[in-house]
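As promised in the previous annual report, we have extended the structural survey to additional targets. Below is the entry for lysozyme.
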Amino acid sequence: MLSRRSSARSRARWRSATLAGVLGALFALLLATPHTAAASSPAAQETAAPAADPTPLGDADPVPDEIGDIEEGEAFMGAGTLIHEGPAAEGQFIAPFDTSGVQGIDVSHWQGSINWGSVRGFGIQFAWMKATEGTSFRDSSFNTNYPAAHAAGVIRGAYHFARPNVSSGAVQANYFASNGGAWSRDNLTLPGVLDIEANPYGASCYGLSQTAMRNWITDFYNTYKARTTRDVVIYTSPGWWNSCTGSWNGMASRSPLWVAHWTTGSPTLPGGFGVWTAWQYTSTGSVSGVSGNVDRNKFNGSRDRLLALANNTA
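The corresponding structure token record, generated without further manual editing, is:
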């Protein structure tokens, strides 16, 4: 199955290839142009100069057809990063990863049917899966994945893809808690996750100021805790957090951090956080029981510490 992740990456690579082709053609044209003609026309030189120094692709806003390729309700973890950063996000594909320690995955309906017994047999100990997005969308595979992971002995939890421009943090936290984000102390249920990352449908910070974004996150956190007694886990990337919250330290003492940094080295932390609890180190991992690419994650600690997080005994 061709995943939406694969499509996003293909578009990013196509942009790079297209840009390279255009620059190559311009270079060939310049070589073919008589030198004396170019030297005799300062105006022509001034006109041609910008083509030799194009705006870096990573600095450009996503073009409309790329944004439109993900329909509302279809976002997945890392979707915003792939769309807004394009090829810059893909430095992950060149080296093997350290898969030691307590390993996990995160999934949504884009992974299709999952054999959770095979996943557990592969050594995966925990998984978070998409439950909701905004206030109108529930993942179509959640009601299958959630109990199946539990039955296979995978410590599992749910995540909510935030849409801060759609409704308040409180409204979305209630929607999440009522549609898969609840918690119980049963050795196999992790606290819910707030997936707060670049907007895959438009402007990266959802049109909110840094202060407004901080307030939105606080609103979600307070409401989720009131509903479940748990501190919601924050999933984010360093670049987005620093840009859209101003490297805010207001959640560091309250929420466990799940950092998205696709690299073979140690992850870079968002400003304001001093330690990570979980680390998403690639979006192109492979795991027995899952067809195609899947996000791979590592827990910062032993299995006993993972169980303590699940049971709220840390």
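Residues 4-32 form the longest helix (29 residues). The mean pLDDT is 82. These points will be discussed at the next consortium meeting with the crystallography subgroup.
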